[in-house]
Design goal:
The chain has 2 domains: 76 residues, Arc Repressor Mutant, subunit A (Orthogonal Bundle); 71 residues, no CATH class. Helices cover 57% and strands 9% of the residues. It has 8 helices and 2 strands. It is globular. The termini are far apart. It binds zinc ion (ZN). Zinc ion binds next to loops. Zinc ion (ZN) binds next to loops.
Length: 193
């Protein structure tokens, strides 16, 4: 016989889709910080070490190189430029993922309840569009494996979420460059006065 001593409903609130390599590579605050810093512009190990040092992560260049190697192996950063400096090759790295590391405020979900609800309704429509796409259905069928717990195929959910994820990053980049462009316009506008 068993007595239930606690029961409460837990809902998933956030989505995390990581392959094993990325999950291992990201298990370190410095690596998360490296990805954040590199999202501003590509940097070399030396420059990255200086920038991190200025923001409270004082590390040796060799340590940073070790982190960069781990991130590169996991495909989370790539070499974007190589420069010859006094006979040595200096590599510049850029991130392939957009990483944010914030402590999420406790009341985040309550504070933004209305926006989350509105956005959810819109995304439902978007998901229906993705799941109804013939090419998507065929391709996700080919890659799916059977779940050992429920015998379902979760690859399709994962693939749909990843499409939204990729599209979100692209949309945010589009907004950022649009904002920069309007900033520049505002500045040139001001200089004419
Ligand atoms: Zn399952």
């Amino acid at each position: 016989m068993s007595d239930t001593i606690l029961q409460r409903n837990i809902r998933a609130r956030r989505l995390v889709a990581l392959d094993q390599k990325s999950a291992q590579a990201l298990g370190d605050v410095v690596r998360m910080r490296i990805l954040e810093v590199l999202s501003h512009r590509p940097m070399s190990a030396e420059e990255l070490t200086r920038v991190l040092g200025n923001s409270g992560h004082k590390k040796a260049v060799t340590t940073i190189r070790h982190h960069l190697d781990a991130l590169k192996t996991a495909g989370l950063i790539e070499t974007t430029k190589m420069v010859e400096v006094r006979g040595a090759v200096m590599k510049y790295y850029a991130p392939t993922i957009r990483a944010f590391s914030f402590e999420v405020p406790l009341k985040f979900e309550d504070t933004h309840a209305r926006l989350i609800q509105d956005t959810s309704a819109r995304i439902q429509k978007i998901l229906r569009g993705i799941l109804g796409d013939k090419k998507f259905l065929i391709e996700s069928e080919q890659n799916g494996t059977v779940c050992s717990v429920c015998k379902g195929n979760h690859f399709r959910e994962y693939a749909a979420a990843e499409i939204v994820n990729h599209a979100l990053v692209r949309a945010m980049e589009g907004n950022a460059s649009a904002e920069n462009a309007s900033d520049k316009q505002a500045k040139t506008g001001n200089s004419k006065h």
